[in-house]
Amino acid sequence: MKVQIDCPPKINLYLRVVRRRDDGYHELETVFQSVGGGDLLQGAPAPDFALQCSDPELPTDSRNLVVKAAEVLRARYPGCAGGAALRLEKRTPMGAGMGGGSVDGAAALVLLSELWGLSPSPTEMAQMAAELGSDVPFFLVGGTALGRGRGEQLEPLATPPLWLVLLKPPVSVSTPWAYRQWRPESCGGPDLAEFVQALETGDARHVAGLLRNDLEPGVAAGTPEIAAAQAWMEAQDLLGVRMTGSGSVVFGVARDEGQAREVVERAGAPGFLWAAPCLTAAEARLVSRPADAAPPAP
Question: Would you call 23 a catalytic residue per the annotation?
């Protein structure tokens, strides 16, 4: 039977770069937030392994985290079947800072474990997810979570009832390049404890006033398309505007769903514009369902 999993992406409501580590990675304090929408991964049993993708520009070899997830599972469980026919319906923009590839990899771990009759423990799943990438473990948790270390040390947080407006300018950003633009002297903003306290209130205006992204100054300075997206969003009377992750998507916190949808209807946005709610962990959970079943309500 063919099954499928919805793959909701994320934004970073808060991102503080603490320091550059000796291993070349960066120590982070970040707040991940699942948002509505995203890719769709479908799969069915098959004698051989194959991945198809709706976007012909996306590789379907081991550069794709769906394929890499299969390789990680086979390495941990050498006796598993190893075959599957997968199709990825790509909806989250690439190079957007929303973890579209990472959530696809996490979903593949869940879907292939089911197809191959495997039962990894939560600890084993987290370990395999970390092999795929620093933010992949978050997508096994979903909702709202504090990430430390490279982002893989997770602590669940309360999900604020926010509606967002998101704008993808016509440019993609390389994550390694974005981190090379980080300059400590150009960073600043609220500390983590203050932001977490704001989340606990659930007040959109309070949260929006404390958004932080230490990668934003360097990335926006080197990418005029992102600077233009920020300027357009800041002119829309949203409560707060920030770039997510390493970019290029810029998001704004709306007063409510009505404002978010009204902004999306405005003309002149310098890129692709859409609205999405923040999702709780239950809403963002990676759960398979029959391919012909209706998606869960957001």
Answer: no
Identify the active-site residue in 10, 68, 90, 168: 10
What phi, psi does 112 have (nearest 5°)?
-70, -35
For residue 217, give Cα distances in angstroms to 26, 108, 138, 170, 245.
17, 34, 25, 19, 12
Q: Which CATH number, 2.60.120.10, 3.30.70.890, 3.40.109.10, 3.30.565.10, labels domain 163-277?
A: 3.30.70.890
Active-site pick, 6, 39, 104, 135: 135
**pLDDT for 57-105, tens place per residue?**
999 999 999 999 999 999 999 989 889 999 999 999 998 999 999 999 9
Find, among 106, 99, 105, the residue nearest to 122 by Cα.
106
| Residue 7, C-beta contacts closer than 8 angstroms, at least 6 positions apart | 38, 39, 40, 41, 92, 100, 103, 104, 106, 107, 139, 286
Tell me the pTM.
Answer: 0.95
Give the distance, in angstroms, between the CA of residue 186 and the centroid of all CA atoms in the same chain: 25
CATH of domain 3-156: 3.30.230.10
Answer yes or no: same fold for 3-156 and 163-277: no
- Respond yes or no: is residue 90 known to be catalytic: no
Q: What distance in Å separates the CA atoms of residue 72 and residue 84, rounded to the nearest whole number?
A: 15
Q: DSSP labels for 113-139?
A: HHHTT----HHHHHHHHHHH-TTHHHH
pLDDT of 225-281, one tens digit each? 999 999 999 999 999 999 999 999 999 999 999 999 999 999 999 999 999 999 999
